[in-house]
Design the sequence.
């Protein structure tokens, strides 16, 4: 067990560092510039985003006791998409507080949907499946509105919207690290701190409550703390598919379901997985980059199927 | 491990009404400190509802529920967990978790270091004779082993009042007797226990049969409360379940055999 954890962490760190050298090679002064001014900040953003999405996925799967829960289950991505499409449709330029209005609108949209669902969860009158349904309803409503906005948009906005929705780590130096960093930190620290009561939930909601867990409050806190980070990530990078679903499952299959290890290892594994996928996205096509979301889905889905079938065979 | 702290559980004129149906109907009952009270009654009588109300898992429509001097609804979750622990009838714990994980979770109410939690959990597992199962996944344990592990969880939570719901369901006879013997030991160590069961014959395996009390519940009402050894118990149980209870004597102890009324 301890050995496996060590190997997992070691391999993750190795892959993350190796990804720094993935991509077109350069020599001399350009090399240092590419490595330290372009790739390193991008690696850091990727690590933050991957870690945030994965640990949130693990926490949501625990809080909803549902293997299919993802960081977007409570409508975060749909809200961000709606916000982004509105910004594109109205062709708003400029920015607020150092970020583009597009990013700000996406962040705002994500917060609105998330707070709506978390607020419902906080009322305490809804079961976990009711909250899940509310998340799906909010997602569908936001998606429908987004479709309406797209219908009314011009061709240029549609192309930009399609690009945004693929999910991509932007090439913008260290600014992304500072912008996402605080939100990601709240999510990572907050969820790690909630690991213990989340573990009680795995015994059943009623038993957890009898053991002293305030289940309503826990659910609200997890939704809130996770969604802050996820909203920041999605607003900055667009929706990056599959990371938050797959990484926790891979950790569970390789190491085990205990949240004490699952949460921190999802964090590390998610960071490594996303930066590695980003490295692959840089080298797969000659002369241009693929959006990283394409790689995460293409690589993640078969990995999960392989691991699940191996686990079933025992 | 469990100390009698003089906390008693008291339900005062409690009703629980859901969808127009009274699951508990003006029921009053007291579990004295150090007492073992067996709740018997037909399916749907309200026994499990009574336990869930006492745990604060559902809110009484009227009446009040007291854990010592505190109203259940006014206690913070951790304070409540310090007074009362629960062994549910059905476990919905994830099968991949280890026995140790399950018992460690029961220490949630304590603010203590991880090492201390693990130490206490292992001690509780050893106490119930499941020390060897600590690292095994719940899904690989037998029914009897699982109940032992669940009992270890009750011990680890270290609450003076234990609410135990059908602990011997689906167990083979040897395991049933083992679990009841273990419960009897915990009782003699000072725990107050409310024990839901269908089978009063199992109660003699607790030991100290003359001190075990039996409460009959039907349609959300308390129908009777008397000692296990009371002469009128067979008749009352027969009326409660709608059967005829025959008495046999086995090794000086009374055994009841139900027969359908024709």
Sequence:
């Amino acid at each position: 067990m301890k050995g496996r954890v060590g190997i997992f962490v070691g391999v993750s760190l190795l892959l993350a560092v190796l990804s720094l050298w993935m991509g077109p090679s350069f020599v001399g002064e350009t090399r240092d510039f590419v490595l330290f001014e372009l790739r390193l900040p991008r690696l850091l953003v990727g690590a933050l985003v991957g870690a945030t999405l994965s640990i949130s996925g693990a926490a949501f799967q625990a809080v909803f006791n549902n293997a299919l829960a993802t960081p977007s289950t409570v409508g975060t991505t749909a809200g961000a998409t709606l916000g982004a499409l509105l910004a594109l449709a109205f062709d708003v330029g400029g920015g607020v507080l150092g970020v583009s209005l597009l990013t700000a609108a996406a962040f705002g949209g994500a917060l609105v949907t998330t707070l709506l669902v978390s607020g419902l969860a906080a009322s305490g009158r809804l079961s976990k499946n009711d909250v899940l349904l509310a998340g799906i309803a909010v997602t569908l409503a936001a998606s429908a509105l987004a479709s309406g906005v797209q219908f009314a948009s011009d061709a240029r906005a549609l192309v930009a919207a399609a690009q945004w929705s693929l999910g991509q780590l932007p090439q913008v130096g260290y600014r992304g690290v500072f912008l996402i960093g605080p939100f990601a930190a709240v999510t990572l620290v907050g969820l790690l701190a909630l690991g213990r009561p989340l573990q009680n939930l795995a015994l059943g909601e009623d038993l957890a409550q009898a053991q002293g867990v305030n289940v309503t409050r826990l659910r609200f806190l997890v939704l809130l703390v996770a969604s802050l980070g996820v909203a920041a990530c999605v607003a900055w990078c667009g929706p990056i598919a599959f990371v938050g679903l797959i990484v926790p499952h891979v950790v569970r299959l390789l190491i085990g379901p205990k949240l004490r290890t699952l949460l921190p290892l999802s964090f590390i594994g998610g960071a490594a997985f996303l930066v590695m996928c980003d490295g692959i996205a840089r080298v797969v096509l000659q002369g241009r980059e693929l959006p990283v979301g394409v790689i995460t889905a293409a690589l993640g889905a078969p990995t999960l199927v392989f691991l699940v079938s191996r686990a079933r065979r025992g | 491990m469990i100390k009698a702290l003089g906390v008693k559980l008291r339900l005062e004129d409690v009703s629980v009404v859901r969808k127009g149906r009274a699951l508990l109907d003006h029921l009053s009952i007291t579990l004295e400190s150090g007492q073992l009270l067996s709740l018997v009654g037909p399916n749907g009588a309200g026994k499990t509802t009574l336990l869930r109300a006492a745990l604060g898992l559902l809110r009484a429509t009227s009446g009040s529920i007291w854990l010592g001097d505190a109203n259940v609804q006014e206690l913070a979750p951790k304070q409540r967990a310090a007074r009362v622990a629960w062994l549910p009838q059905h476990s919905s714990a994830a099968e991949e978790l280890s026995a140790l994980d399950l018992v460690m979770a029961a220490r949630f109410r304590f603010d203590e270091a991880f090492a201390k939690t693990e130490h206490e959990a292992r001690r509780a597992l050893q106490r119930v004779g499941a020390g060897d199962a600590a690292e095994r996944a719940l899904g690989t344990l037998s029914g009897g082993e699982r109940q032992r592990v669940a009992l270890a969880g009750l011990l680890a939570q270290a609450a003076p009042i234990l609410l135990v719901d059908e602990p011997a369901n689906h167990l083979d006879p040897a395991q049933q007797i083992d679990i009841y013997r273990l419960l009897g030991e915990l009782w003699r160590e000072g725990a107050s226990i409310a024990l839901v069961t269908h089978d009063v014959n199992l109660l003699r395996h607790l030991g100290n049969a003359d001190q075990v009390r039996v409460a009959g519940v039907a349609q959300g009402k308390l129908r009777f409360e008397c000692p296990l050894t009371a002469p009128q118990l067979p008749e009352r149980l027969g009326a409660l379940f709608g059967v005829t209870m025959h008495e046999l004597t086995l090794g000086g102890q009374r055994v009841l055999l139900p027969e359908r009324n024709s």
Remarks:
- The two ends of chain B are 49 Å apart (CA to CA).
- Chain B has one domain: 9-229.
- Chain B has a mean pLDDT of 92.
- Residues 204 and 251 of chain B are 11 Å apart (CA to CA).
